[in-house]
Amino acid sequence: MATAPRPRTTTRDPEELAHRLTAWLATHLPGARTVNVTVPESNGMSSETLLFDIEHPEPPLRACALRLAADPAAYTVFPVYDMPRQYRTMRLVAERTDLPVPRVLWLEEDPGPLGAPFFVMERIEGRVPPDVMPYTYEGNWLHAASDEERERLEAASTGLLARLHDQVPVKEADFLTLPGDGSPLRRHVRAQRTYYTWVVDGLPRSPLIESAFDRLDELWPRDEGEAVLNWGDARIGNVIYDGFEPAAVLDWEMAALAPREVDLGWTVYLHRFFQDLTVSFGQSGLPDFLRRDRVERRYAELTGHTPRDMEFYTLYAALRHAIVMLRVAYRQAHFGEVAVPPDPDTLILHHGSLRAMVQGSYWQGPGVAR
């Protein structure tokens, strides 16, 4: 992992973006200009982030962050980037919950100024558990923390989900209803099937991903429960922390109406993904952090809702993550960074754990911390 080529995250020129951003800002805040425009090293491969300060004679704010839809000509990770939807979601969560969501300032739906729609929000200072190298690896602030400090962060982060799910009136989140017929969960899974079909269009299909979809059908919950507003990308890598307390909840592009367990499964599995990867490279990682049993128990205590069918939902999370990873790998191949192997399943970094989930052995293995 340490020597693997890191996928490129942008095809845009930061200096050109800075000039165009300054021109746009002048039409919304006369006399203002942007300074200190930077692209963070942790920039994702879907929406892009720019950090900048505003200089203005009467500055009500200075530090900002901008989320810019991916360049449609750059082999995007997702087929659609709905910035108004994300902007509206953040406003709703800010208005109807006590979650620390950055205040959104402007939405620009016209792709003309920067080449794609974007929105601007306040920038929150703090620290984020790293993805590269993962926070489960030695040498970062979360790994170096004490057990008690990580326990505080885990409790506070689980509390974010509990409060989000309990506090947002579902009727006010109707705009997040996914298209099609059937229950919210049926629609959610169908949307992932559609995404997978888009990813493999004209490219090798993944037998493992397709077997995981079949396994989902076998494990389908008898009682799907109520639908709530799901964060979508519910993981600690999308939270800015002040010490060990959440200061800002970020990345709402995958928000949707779905059962509570969709978010919980994603939270549990995305940590397992990093933990399993770390163990495979000879480190112990953080085996007692974000354990499935503790997350489920704490969530039940906070909400009165006992998570159920979590084998289904953690498999679903691993499946969704596999589709994203396959698209990222095909994107790398598009830019000549990797070659497509004879077995496309090997492009999925966690193909071993996904296969174990399909076979029903992942959570029952010796020494596995639930």
UniProtKB/TrEMBL annotation:
SUPFAM superfamilies attached to this UniProt entry: Protein kinase-like (PK-like) (SSF56112)
Pfam family, one: APH
Coiled coil: none
Residue ranges of every copy of the Aminoglycoside phosphotransferase domain listed in the record: 82-279
Transmembrane segments: none
Superkingdom as given in the UniProt entry: Bacteria
InterPro entries to which the protein is assigned, alphabetical: ACAD10_11_N (IPR041726), AGP_Transferase (IPR051678), Aminoglycoside_PTrfase (IPR002575), Kinase-like_dom_sf (IPR011009)
Protein name per UniProt: Phosphotransferase family protein
